[in-house]
Design goal:
Helices cover about 50% and strands about 20% of the residues. The protein has about 180 residues and is α+β, with helices and mostly antiparallel strands.
């Protein structure tokens, strides 16, 4: 078990006939691949008030975010590294006021949907922090300029972090304004 991420471009909301079992062969034959947004998923702020129901979708990509504990580690590292950056970067500190990545950090780690407008916000946040986290902290440590980060994380952990950071950024970029990031 673990957390998988799939991101989609949303199409139109589809009216599904009563009496057809969701995701049965008959369902697929009649409707194809649809994404269901239910009442619980549409409840969160990050869903951007998308209507409950079945949506036509185009799959844009996906990745494995890790085990649930692995994703928890990523979120903790993201929070720590962003706070480290904000201590050194007044502009980002003023812009985010310690709330960088909040829409992702305060979101379910098992199932849910991040909507098109929250994706825009998260893409912008990932873009703002990419150079300060990846270049100014991680690469500077790798090349021996400032190795203090190794007191907290190993080189392998930081390499894994960078790979996931780029996957998340791409997911939010591709869905900005047009799609959803689906946690499952």
């Amino acid at each position: 078990m673990g957390l998988d991420i799939t991101y989609y471009k949303l199409g139109k909301l589809v009216e599904v006939e009563e009496g057809i079992e969701a995701y049965s062969q008959e369902f697929y034959d009649k409707y194809g691949d649809l994404l269901h947004i239910d009442e619980m998923q549409s409840y969160t702020e990050q869903t951007d008030s998308l209507d409950e129901g079945y949506y036509e979708v185009d799959r844009l990509g996906g990745f494995r975010a890790g085990s649930y504990s692995g994703y928890s580690w990523y979120r903790t590292a993201l929070r720590r590294l962003s706070l480290m950056v904000m201590k050194k970067n007044k502009e980002l500190s003023e812009k985010y006021d310690e709330d960088a990545f909040e829409q992702q950090l305060d979101f379910s780690d098992c199932e849910g949907i991040i909507g098109p407008f929250t994706s825009v916000e998260l893409f912008n946040t990932y873009s703002d922090f990419e150079k300060p986290i990846i270049h100014d902290i991680i690469k500077m440590a790798k090349y021996g300029v400032d190795e203090s980060i190794y007191e907290t994380y190993t080189k392998d952990e930081l390499g894994h972090f960078v790979a996931l950071y780029r996957e998340w950024k791409m997911a939010f970029e591709k869905t900005s304004g047009i799609g959803v990031v689906y946690f499952h």
